[in-house]
Automatic annotation (TrEMBL):
SUPFAM superfamilies: alpha/beta-Hydrolases (SSF53474)
Species name: Halomonas qinghailakensis
NCBIfam families, A to Z: esterase_phb
GO MF assignments: hydrolase activity
Pfam families (UniProt xref): Esterase_PHB (PF10503)
Keywords (A to Z) from UniProt: Hydrolase, Signal
InterPro entries, per database record: AB_hydrolase_fold, Esterase_phb, Plant_Biomass_Hydrol_Est
Name the UniProt record assigns to this protein: PHB depolymerase family esterase
GO CC annotation: extracellular region
Keyword Repeat included in the entry's annotation: no
Length: 300
């Protein structure tokens, strides 16, 4: 996808970041008001998208200007995947210490070092294949992230090859709840504290079925020891937000199902609080997932 001048001007190519076994590319955005020990958000685009198009649609760099947040945009190359999808379903790209996850880990290390980022305030989000790769990163490198947000994505290791991935996207099959939990716990030797989890999904998504959102919640409920019904359900911008709190009362999981929305990232472009631009897979529904995710992470 060609770089638009408005977003190309905003993002800077990260040329050096370790051995890059996943053969990815990377862009950064460091706002002028970023101060030492500030936070970093890693943003993963979806299939057929680029770092630039996802930034333009989601409005992350505009929010970064508001709040002083550093951004890292890992990018897929067409030589790795013809539709620029992260290879979340490939065994070589879904394990700690290998492939695309290790490339992203190296990028994070580089940016944290280059810009004096607070290593306890690193977060990750992504949509579609980027959402599924967010699941991979949270499971394989949980010690790196304070929180993650999975938009229109799938649970970690719900598929181990392309054929399985297509079936899981349609909402069929998949690991049992106990297996979902074991997959995260087995992805690293880490024992917690675990990253907080934000899950967003369109209720009318025909590309990645909503059943995957519920599976992601169940995968992390067991890890966080917050099984069962949500602690509370509230209305946010006209949509239900389900929240699970731990025994300390801390919100550790939230889930938004946007009724009537298809496959994509929910945005609200207009108004004082508006961010981003409507585009393919960047869906104007009157709620900014970008702003609410940043609020969940206490970045706003």
């Amino acid at each position: 996808m060609p770089r638009t001048s408005s977003s190309q001007d905003r993002l800077t190519d990260l040329k050096e970041f370790g051995s890059d076994p996943g053969a990815l590319q990377a862009d950064t955005y460091i706002p002028k008001n970023f101060s030492k020990n500030g936070p970093l958000v890693v943003v993963l685009h979806g299939s057929t998208q680029s770092a630039e198009s996802y930034d333009l649609g989601s409005g992350w760099s505009a929010l970064a200007d508001e709040c002083g947040i550093a951004l890292l945009y890992p990018g897929q190359r067409k030589s790795n995947n013809p539709i620029s999808s992260f290879n979340w379903f490939s065994s070589g790209d879904s394990r700690r210490g290998k492939g695309e996850p290790l490339s992203i880990r190296h990028m994070i290390e580089q940016v944290v070092k280059d810009h004096d980022i607070d290593p306890t305030r690193v977060f990750i989000t992504g949509m579609s294949s980027g959402g599924a790769m967010t699941s991979v990163m949270l499971a394989t490198y949980p010690e790196v992230f304070a929180g993650g947000a999975i938009i229109a994505g799938l649970p970690y290791r719900s598929a181990d090859n392309l054929m399985e991935a297509v079936v899981r996207m349609k909402g069929y099959g998949g690991p049992s709840d106990s297996k979902l939990d074991a997959l995260v716990r087995g992805a690293s030797t880490y024992e917690g504290p675990w990253p907080t989890i934000s899950v967003w999904h369109g209720g009318s998504d025909s590309t990645v079925d909503q059943a995957n959102a519920d599976s992601i919640v169940r995968q992390w409920q067991q890890v966080h020891n917050v099984e069962g019904s949500p602690t509370r359900v509230e209305q946010v911008d006209g949509f239900p937000r389900q929240v699970w709190c731990n025994t300390d009362g801390k919100e550790v999981i939230e889930e938004y199902i946007i009724e009537g929305m298809g496959h994509g990232t929910p945005i609200m472009a207009g108004g004082d609080e508006g961010l981003g631009e409507e585009d393919k897979y960047m869906l104007e529904v009157g709620i900014s997932s970008t702003r609410h995710i940043a609020h969940f992470w206490a970045l706003t």
